[in-house]
Write a structure and sequence with these properties.
Radius of gyration of chain A: 16 Å
Oligomer: homodimer
Structural class of chain A: alpha+beta
Helix content of chain A: 40-55%
Shape of chain A: globular
GO biological process, one term (chains A, B): glutathione metabolic process
Largest interface: A-B, 30 and 30 residues
Order of helices and strands of chain A: EHHEHHHHHHHEEH
Strand content of chain A: 5-15%
Strand order of the largest sheet of chain A: 2-1-3-4
CATH superfamily of chain A: Glutaredoxin
Number of helices of chain A: 10
Largest sheet of chain A: 4 strands, mixed
GO molecular function (chains A, B): 2-hydroxychromene-2-carboxylate isomerase activity; glutathione peroxidase activity; glutathione transferase activity
Protein name (chains A, B): 2-hydroxychromene-2-carboxylate isomerase
Number of domains of chain A: 1
CATH class of chain A: Alpha Beta
InterPro entries (chains A, B): DSBA-like_thioredoxin_dom, GST_Kappa/NadH, HCCAis_GSTk, NahD-like, Thioredoxin-like_sf
Family (chains A, B): Belongs to the GST superfamily. NadH family.
Chain lengths: 200, 200
């Protein structure tokens, strides 16, 4: 089977949320699995000398308009969190911890976090909220809270972010299709075309 | 007839060049004309606190890769100018000067400048080169050189850039379809869908 499509994202990325609703289906249409790779956008923006998107003059206003429009286009519920952006450390840590034991549950948790952040305006950066979202998946609250505080789990997220940077990930979402890089939810049509045609 | 699609661009924007090859056809498919509006990206980037795209870590490398890939996708010749970016003042001034007298010629000159910059690696910021490109259109070299040095023509480009900023243009290319803003060559499919559907 061909290599999975890599889906890199930050939990506080609106376009990452929108891509999370589409990427598995796009990959599946072409017989591909996906690998979900949360990372932190903060250090990437810092390296680039960039402020968060919504804080950049002109671009920020456009982005606010476009987040909502991009969501409407795919019929997805969306609301910009009242506190935005935040560093999605806790969900990223929980994701990698869980993924080692059960990848499907990790992905289900990721979806729940995205929904909490971008639909329900809950604080997805709060470990207690992440633990609450994980409970329906059969994850013990205390076990998760202990896990996300462990140095080796923190290290996983640092390593993922370092890997993203080393591989040229310049924003969220970011995709690799057989090594080919694509940045942005609005490039999903190119991801699909690359899968279809093998590249151009 | 419905309002024309507005096409805002900087003459040293690779994505602006790629959009210039497509926008008229896209608009025409939906019974729309286009209005071409060159402006200067420099002051917009400055207001945003942004460096030129290719100078931003991570993003710059991605952009270089993506310029070429985006060109291949539409079968367009492309090469990044050896001196890049530059302020496309002279061609923008020549464009507005010419557009007052003959819009079709102004557009033909714009196409010639884009080709000179992004295919032939010529200095599209040099008034002498712009004059040379205008000659086949029946424009006197000296008349053009005098025009682009006139204060009222310089003012036109300043005013266009100020208008772009006031209307939220955050990059190049930028489109307005019945007032709806779209940023980026990779959003042309959304421009087309908006024209098709009247919006979503």
């Amino acid at each position: 089977m061909a290599a999975p499509v890599e889906f890199w994202f930050d939990f506080y990325s609106p376009y990452g949320y929108l891509a999370s609703l589409q990427i598995d289906e796009i990959a599946a249409r072409h017989g591909r699995a996906t690998v979900w790779r949360p990372f932190l956008l903060g250090p990437i923006f810092q390296r680039q000398g960039l402020a968060p998107l919504v804080e950049i003059p002109l671009l920020g206003d456009y982005a606010r308009h476009d987040f909502a429009r991009s969501a409407r286009l795919i019929g997805a519920p969306f609301r910009l969190p009242s506190a935005f952006p935040k560093a999605g450390l806790a969900p990223a840590r929980a994701f990698y911890w869980l993924a080692e034991r059960d990848e499907a549950k990790a992905r289900a948790l990721a979806r729940a976090v995205f929904r909490a952040v971008f639909v329900e305006d809950r604080d997805g950066a709060d470990p207690a909220v992440v633990a609450e979202l994980a409970a329906p998946l059969g994850i013990e609250r205390d076990e998760l809270l202990a896990a996300v505080a462990r140095p080796e789990i923190k290290e996983r997220v640092k390593a993922a972010t370092a890997e993203a940077m080393a591989r040229g990930v310049c924003g969220s979402p970011f995709f690799f299709v057989d090594g080919e890089p694509f940045w942005g939810n609005d490039r999903l049509w190119q991801v699909e075309r690359w899968l279809e045609t093998g590249g151009w």
